[in-house]
UniProtKB/TrEMBL annotation:
Residues 17-257 form the NAD-dependent epimerase/dehydratase domain. This is NAD-dependent epimerase/dehydratase domain-containing protein. The lineage of its organism: Bacteria, Candidatus Kaiseribacteriota. Belongs to the NAD(P)-dependent epimerase/dehydratase family. Gene3D superfamilies: NAD(P)-binding Rossmann-like Domain (3.40.50.720), UDP-galactose 4-epimerase, domain 1 (3.90.25.10). Pfam families: Epimerase. InterPro entries: Epimerase_deHydtase, NAD(P)-bd_dom_sf. SUPFAM superfamilies: NAD(P)-binding Rossmann-fold domains. It comes from the Bacteria.
Length: 337
């Protein structure tokens, strides 16, 4: 039976919310949305500060309280949760780049796994916390012969990044089931949209390459198939899940969030070319330790949460291309391009 959606603003207005990893791509979009509708938003991140740019129609960057620190520090977490009276936690802090995790597995495992259990230990002792969403990933499933992934599929990530997300997911489930904590897990596909400055990802790199008039290098053979989901839909998914995790007894539950329309890399490049007709690329086929086919079945989220993605790829890419066309020429450090 589908959950009846409540008016979101009334749930979040005045609510103290912690977003770990909130200076990252998805975390900043989430923090911006929460601040825009009246939540008291605290961001914990190891970066020097929030991104200099604003997102959305209104600049609410000044309404977000930034705390520089690591989720692997229990002292920091205990202090933040107690002093700020945090009621909702969105745990997004992680090593999110597959290539970096491959080069530095110990750092990725420390950030992604230790960071999760450290946060949840602090939350377990904090009586103010009523809802926790842990960001897992479709990568947590690892390689399966049967696709799309459904939530009951085994978590068997074997590459450093995939393994770290499998473990993150299982640690979250353990705390929820063993200690009765209000934790739900979000497993998303490949997220794209305004604000992503991780240039190793396909869509930001394609738009940056076009702006510089250079050739885009494709690591795979072009046939890798993935879900692509617009960042606003992911923010909506996280918030929807948090709103219902305690009230509707979803503790320990995992939900897939994707478009249910997997695409090859070559298909995405074709769609990007609609907005950037001068895109040129070359297939290198040098990808290592990456699974060729990964995509999700998101019907549980539709059935239980009444959640569905709203932004089609074509519309999402159009909005994304427009954002980068404004952002890229104004980068203060040309080396970032």
């Amino acid at each position: 039976m589908a959950v009846k959606r409540k008016h979101r603003a009334s749930h979040w207005r005045g609510r103290s919310v912690l977003v770990t990893g909130g200076a990252g791509f998805i975390g900043y979009a989430l923090a911006t949305k929460l601040a825009d509708i009246g939540a008291r938003v605290y961001v914990l991140d190891i970066k020097p500060d929030l991104p200099a740019f604003s997102l959305g129609k209104r600049n609410v960057r000044g309404k977000i309280t930034y705390i520089r620190g690591s989720v692997t520090s229990k002292k920091t977490l205990d202090d933040v949760l107690k002093r700020k009276g945090i009621r909702a936690i969105f745990h997004l802090a992680a090593e999110a780049i597959v290539g970096r995790a491959l080069k530095h597995p110990a750092k990725a495992l420390d950030a992604n796994i230790k960071g999760t259990w450290t946060l949840l230990e602090s939350a377990r002792a904090a009586s103010s916390v009523h809802e926790i969403v842990v960001a897992s990933s479709d990568k947590a499933y690892g390689s399966h012969a049967k696709l799309p992934y459904k939530e009951d599929a085994a978590l068997q990530g074997l590459n450093p990044y995939d393994c770290s997300k499998s473990c993150t997911d299982l640690v979250a489930q353990m705390y929820a089931r063993t200690y009765g904590m209000p934790i739900a897990i979000a497993r998303c596909g490949n997220v794209y949209g305004p604000g992503d400055t991780n240039w190793s990802r396909l869509i930001p790199d394609a738009l940056r390459s076009t702006s510089r008039g250079r050739m885009l290098d494709i690591r795979s053979d072009g046939t890798f198939k993935r879900d692509y989901i617009y960042v606003d839909d992911v923010v909506d998914a996280y918030m929807t899940l948090a709103e219902h995790v305690e009230r509707d007894s979803l503790s320990g539950e995992a939900f897939n969030f994707g478009n249910n329309k997997p695409l090859k890399v070559s298909d995405v490049l074709r769609e990007i070319s609609r907005n950037t007709p001068h895109l040129e690329f070359q297939i290198l086929n040098t990808a290592q330790n990456e699974i060729q086919y990964q995509y999700l079945d998101s019907h549980k989220a539709e059935r239980v949460l009444s959640w569905k993605p709203k932004v089609l790829l074509r519309d999402g890419l159009k909005r994304t291309a427009a954002w980068y066309s404004d952002f890229l020429p104004n980068l203060k450090n040309p080396g970032q391009q």
